[in-house]
């Protein structure tokens, strides 16, 4: 059917995360790894809640997917603090790893090195906000460009937070 | 020469310097992102309908009904009416015609129902044609004609499907990828078929340059016959290539010798393509554009003047305008161009092995949409990218081909087509290239119409795009 390659260049769908036209990896944001309390410095708050933004156009993120899902206390906390409560939680990381294998691994590879999708195991972020947990949540839940779909269609917000906790470990393992 | 002078004279009389559209002669003439197409049009993608499971293509019947037909990968065709309503019962359901299960192989994401084409005389004969990966035939491409029951114009029952099935062609597929897919009637009434190189990577069969295989080709056949699956159009480039003849050894030029291709298949229209999943005819000029999906580094769009068959588009000797395989920066290597160059190309994030990553105007798989002749656009070929969600426009001006990124969306484009008014339509899906879990398991995709931004109706749902 559509894309047609056996092995795609490592950053083939890095384009999928490239919303800032003309931006190269060299220009992209780098940040140190901090999986426990990443300060959401670039994140806005309103009425005590995080203001989430769509990765594609920076418009307010609409929580339109899987509207029947249960918003766990951890999700509620994340919406309030912008910090992932599951970071470093062994059980959550294990659960997130299972979801990662099912939803993410085919494009980003087992170790997060990237193939169809960009690498996740370093600190180079195609979109500035992705250096924060809020930014990573935004792009997973609401999607980026092209093949980086809105995975909020496939996973509950609680699962996404667990996936994020697992992805943190990929950066630490590298 | 006289013809050229006459053309130039006419252009001068008109006060313009319009160059005839033609394939580039040099690599520098191959357009890359960064150009501006005439009129610098501003477009929007307006949602027509949604809820399609892995939509793969879109077409109209040309019968005045205004219906739009969306193919779903699993093997169904859905009807969208004039008002954007999607009929619940499929027009065609290839998952229901075989008592043992579906007739469609969907094991890999490149497999499934690829496309539908309606006979130019559909209003009279009810014939339509589909191309799909056959499950019983291990993924071989089946091109089959069915005939609608006039008493049931919106649903072809499984019984009717089986009763009227006429197999036109089976294209053997050695591997599960690079199956081509598009079938479409040209302005000449012939059925054109996009046939990929058979898969794996690097074209292991050398199919693109092998005139004895249907793989890696654009095929052209005449389906206007009941006596055989199809006829060979007499003006196909190799229509008579295999006919028996006496051998002549003297008084023949080398060029004439080189044209003796006794094993060439008569169905071949052009060759040297890798995976022409989508191609389109300009409704106005009849010219053809082929979105030929590239390998590791470049995507290409081929231009072919109406009726100008016989071209070698290079694969696997060439990847877009560069020699294949790429082993480094093509600017630092020497090689001869093989065949006809594409009109435009765009890179992947790494434009050659070892190149620095650059996501500017990059992508991974070109998906052709169609040619727009409205909304300030005059012969603009539109295509999108599966990975990056970008939409590109290709057109020519006095300076040559221009290739412009028109927008970047959040969509995973699969294909395009036309409605009955020749507006360009687009479908997008939400599936995985690897580890896809089935054509009916993915979040649904949508059908979009390309419109000039100034013509968008109030309240329309628009595709989101990057700022």
UniProtKB/TrEMBL annotation, chain A:
SUPFAM superfamilies: Cytochrome c
The entry's keywords: Heme, Iron, Metal-binding, Signal
Keyword Metal-binding belongs to the record: yes
GO terms of molecular function: electron transfer activity; heme binding; metal ion binding
Signal peptide: 1-26
InterPro entries with a match to the protein in the record: Cyt_c-like_dom, Cyt_c-like_dom_sf
Ranges in coiled-coil conformation: none
Domain Cytochrome c positions: 91-171
Official protein name in the record: Cytochrome c-L
Natural source organism: Sulfitobacter brevis
UniProtKB/TrEMBL annotation, chain B:
Keyword Signal: yes
Signal peptide, first to last residue: 1-20
Keyword tags: Signal
Domain Glucose/Sorbosone dehydrogenase: 55-319
This protein's record includes keyword Signal: yes
Listed InterPro entries: 6-blade_b-propeller_TolB-like, Glc/Sorbosone_DH, Quinoprot_gluc/sorb_DH_b-prop
This protein's name: Glucose / Sorbosone dehydrogenase
Organism listed in the record: Sulfitobacter brevis
